[in-house]
Amino acid sequence: MVSRGSRRAAARLGALIGGLAAAFAFAATAGAHTAYVLNSGGGISVIDTTTNTVADDVIGLGNPWTGAISPDASRLYVATGAAVPVIDTSSNLVVGSIGLSVNAVAISPDGSRAYFTHPYSEGLVVVDTASDDVVSEIPVGPSPHGLAISPDGAYAYVTDYIENNVRVVDLDAETVEATIPVGDQPLTAAVGPDGERVYVGNHESDSITVIDAATNDVVGSPIPVGDNPFTIAFTPGGERAYVVDFGGATVSVIDTETDDVVDTISVGLNPTGIAITPDGSRAYVANQGDDTVSVLDLVSGTVVNELSVGPFPRAVAITPNQPPDAELSADPLQVSPGVPVAFDASASSDDEGIKSFRFDFGDGSSANSADGTSSHTYTEPGTYEATVTVDDGEGCEPLPEFAQLGLASPFTGQTAHCNGPSAVTSEPVTVTVIGRLALALSLKRPQTSLRRVEARATCENQGCEAKAKGRLKVKPRGKKARLFKLKPDERSLAADKRTTLAPRIPARARRAARNALRSGGKVRAQLRISALAAGEQRRVRLRQTRIVR
Q1: Residue 223 and residue 261 in contact, taking contact as beta carbons nearer than 8 Å
Q2: 112-146: b or e for each residue (b if 16 or more CB lie within 10 Å)?
Q3: Could you tell me if 140 and 167 are in contact, meaning their C-beta atoms sit under 8 angstroms apart?
Q4: Contacts 24+ apart (CB under 8 A), 251-258
Q5: What angle do CA 424, 426, 431 make, to 5 degrees?
Q6: pLDDT of residue 25
Q7: Residues in the chain with pLDDT < 50?
Q8: Residue 525: which of 498, 506, 497 has the closest Cα?
Q9: What is the C-alpha to C-alpha distance for residues 332 and 348, in angstroms, rounded to an integer?
C-alpha cells in the first residue's frame, strides 16, 4: 500500500443547494478522445475532443448531474437523482442501472469499486464494478456530498456541506478516521496527483481549504478564489489546480507550490464542472447558465472554443487515456555475427494510433522508428534481449509508485488521467547469436542405382534446410550426350546429424541410362547440395559421380 503522504485524489461534485444540484470535474482525457457532458436538463452530450464537435447524444437518462469513468474507459457511471445508469462507452448505450439516489460518484484507481455518497442513508455506498452490486455501506454521518478517493485507493474524502467538514474514511477498515473542519458549504474535494494534499471547495466561503493528507491537518489559511467555487481539477503533474467559480463565471488557477491564485479565466455563465486532458493542455468547462462548454487552452490561459451542448450542463467526464498494446517479432531469432536481424513491431495497436517506436537491441544499441520496423546486426556471440517501446503520443505518463501497484494514475479522486503509460515495453525477445553454418558432404563413387543418386549431408553447428538437385548426363557409345534433370530432394537437417539426400532419376532418364550402359556408354550424375540456416546463412556444395551396372 502506498503511504498516505504519497496519495492523491481529485474531486469535483457540486450541488447547488438552492435547487441547482451537483457537478463533477473529471481529470482525465482520452485514448478515445471523448468528453461526456452531463446535462441536468436531460441526457449527455458526447464531445470528440480532437475536433471539438458534439459527436453523439445519450438521452433518456432523466436528470444526470455527476459521473465517473472507469480507468479502462469502458464504463460511465451516472448519478441522476433517482438511479445510477451504467453506460457502455464503446456504444454509448445504457447497459445497467444501480438503484441509488446519490450525490457523488467515484471509481477506485484499480477500477474494482465504485463509491457513492448517499445523502438519505448518511453513508458511503460501495459497489463491485464486476457485478454492479452493492457490497457494503460505510456510515459517514449527516449530509455526505462531495467525494474523492486517494490515489492508492485506501481513503475516501467525503464533504459535509451542512456541518462544514470533511470526513476521512479508511476504506479497508470501513470507518471514519478523522473529521476535519473546513469552510462554509464544502461541495467538492480533490487530491493532488501525488496524494499528499487534498483541496476542498467551500461554496459559500469563496475559498479553498488545503488539507495535509499525511496528518489530516489544515495547511495554512484558506485560498481566496472566485464566487461560489464548485469543482476542482488538477493538471496531471499537479502543478496547477483549476477551480470553477459558479457565481463569478470564472475559473481560478492556483499554483499548488505557493497556493496562490495566479490567473482568472472568464468562461460561460454559471460554470459547474471541469475536466482536464491527460496531457494537461486543455480543460473543458460546463457552463450551466448558457448551455455551453468552454474549451480552455491551459498554456495560454484562454478560451479557444465555445460548444453548444444539452440543457443545463453540470459536469464533464473525459475518458482516461489507454496504453498501447505492444507486439514485437524478430527474424531470424538465431543468427551468426554480422547477419542482420529484422525487427517488426508494426502489429502494435492503440485506439488513436502509434506515434513512435523505440527499439533497444540489448547490446547497447537502439533505434527510433516511425513505422515500427528496424534492422540490427550483432557483432559478438551471445544472447540478447530485444525490446520495443511503443508511444501513443498522448503525453500521458503514470506515476511509477502507483503504476507498479497496478493502479491507474495520475488519479485525482473520481477517475484517472491515465490507465497505464503512453510508452509501453513489450515482452523481451531473445536473440541468440550462434556459430557459422558449415556443410559437409560425402558421395559414394561410383553408384549403381538407376532410381536415385545418394549423397550424405551434414549441417554443422546448427540445423538447416537442405536441398539436393542436379542432372544426369547420359552418353551412349558413339553418340552425343543427353542431359536429364533429377527430381530434387528437400529435407530439414538436425544440427550435426548426417542425413541421406537422394534426388530421384526420372523414368525417361533411367531408360536412356540403361540403354547407354548396355552399349558401353557412360552415365554421370552431377549434384548441387545447398543448405539454408538461420541468419540467411547459405552453403553450397557441388559433386559428381559415375553410374555403373
Answers
A1: yes
A2: ebbbbbbbeeebbbbbebeebebeebbebeebbbb
A3: yes
A4: 251/226, 251/283, 251/285, 251/296, 252/225, 252/226, 253/301, 254/199, 254/208, 254/223, 254/225, 256/192, 256/197
A5: 145
A6: 26
A7: 1-31
A8: 506
A9: 19
Residue 107 amino acid letter: I
> Which pTM value belongs to this model?
0.74
Provide DSSP, 432-476: EE-PPPEEEEE--SSB--SSB--EEEEEESS-EEEEEEEEEEEE-
C-alpha cell at 2: 502506498
pLDDT digits (tens, 9 = 90+) for 205-251: 999 999 999 999 999 999 999 999 999 999 999 999 999 999 999 99
Q: What amino acid occupies position 516?
A: A
Angstrom distance (rounded) from CA 489 to CA 486:
9
Give bridge partners of residue 32 from the DSSP assignment.
Answer: none
- The DSSP letter of residue 154 is S
Residue 507: partners with Cβ closer than 8 Å, 6 or more residues away: none
In sequence order, the 6+-apart residues with CB closer than 8 A to the CB of 499 are: 456, 457, 458, 466, 491, 493
Residue type, 327: E
Q: What pLDDT digit, counting tens, does each position of 492-535 carry?
A: 999 999 999 999 999 999 999 999 999 999 999 999 999 998 76
DSSP 134: E
Instruction: Calculate Rg over the CA atoms of the chain.
Output: 36
**Nine-digit cell string for 173:** 477498515
CA–CA gap between residue 437 and residue 427 (Å, rounded): 29
Cell of 33: 478522445
Query: Which residues on adjacent β-strands are paired with residue 411?
Result: 416
Could you give the CA distance from residue 79 to residue 62 in angstroms, rounded to a whole number?
10
